[in-house]
Amino acid sequence: MDTLVIVLLLVVIALLAVVAIVLLAARRAAQRQQASDAATLKRASGADPFASPETDAMLGDPRQLKPGDTVEVRGHAYAVRGSIHCKEGAWSWQEHLLDDATGPKLWLSVEEDPDLQLVLWTELRGLTVSPGPKTIDLDGRRYTSDESGRATYTAAGHTGLDPQGTVRYHDYEAADGTQLSFERWGDSESWEAGRGERVQRHELRVFPSSSA
């Protein structure tokens, strides 16, 4: 009799464990579906569906990038060689020098205005145009002046700049969202130009370095 009771108790416990596992799996599936539905709804409304603490925990937070980190953009990994933090009044943004040791160096700008904006910049050399006009025609696109100003900056890592200084900038944007930026650092009398392409949050992943 005692043996039968023990067997029955073991069977009940096993059945309860199975039920608990099934309920837990169903709950997790429902949570994943809710997250997917929320992302779809935000995407349809034009909001950033990837701006959440959960996404930062999974993909890394680009607002915390620093020299020595690795950043993956659309499946391609780059080392962060240096970082520049710019500030103009209450507005601030970051620019990070990316290098994969094989191709041209790229810059990634990170800005909250107020949503997180990520732009991958490619350096343009030998341009015969300068900032100032309301529009600039370049490589089949017409860029319209967006904003300009002067900011202070601090630099860390390998950027080729002084540790701190000032930067003048003039930004343009084309109808398809492509950006054109001119920057003049410190006492330089020449403009540096770059073409920018927006990067979606889910296209970028951050791998922090082991050092703090």
Strand content: 35-45%
Beta strands, count:
11
Low-pLDDT parts are 38-50
Number of domains: 2
Order of SSEs: HHEEEEEEEEEEE
Helical proportion, percent range? 10-25%
> Which structural category fits the helices and strands?
alpha+beta
- Radius of gyration of CA atoms, rounded to a whole number: 25 Å
Q: What would you call the shape?
A: elongated
Distance between the termini: 64 Å
| Largest sheet composition | 8 strands, antiparallel, barrel
Strand order within the widest beta sheet: 2-3-4-5-10-9-8-7
The overall average pLDDT, rounded, is: 85
Our count of helices gives 2
Describe this entry's structure for a reader.
With 212 residues, the protein is of the alpha+beta class. It folds into two domains: 1-47; 63-207, no CATH class. 24% of the residues lie in helices and 44% in strands. The protein has two helices and eleven strands, in the order ααβββββββββββ. It has helices at residues 2-45, 53-59, and strands at residues 70-73, 76-88, 91-99, 106-112, 116-124, 135-138, 141-157, 164-174, 179-185, 192-199, 204-207. An eight-stranded antiparallel β-barrel has the order 2-3-4-5-10-9-8-7. Strand 9 and strand 10 (192-199) form a beta hairpin. The longest helix has 44 residues, at 2-45.
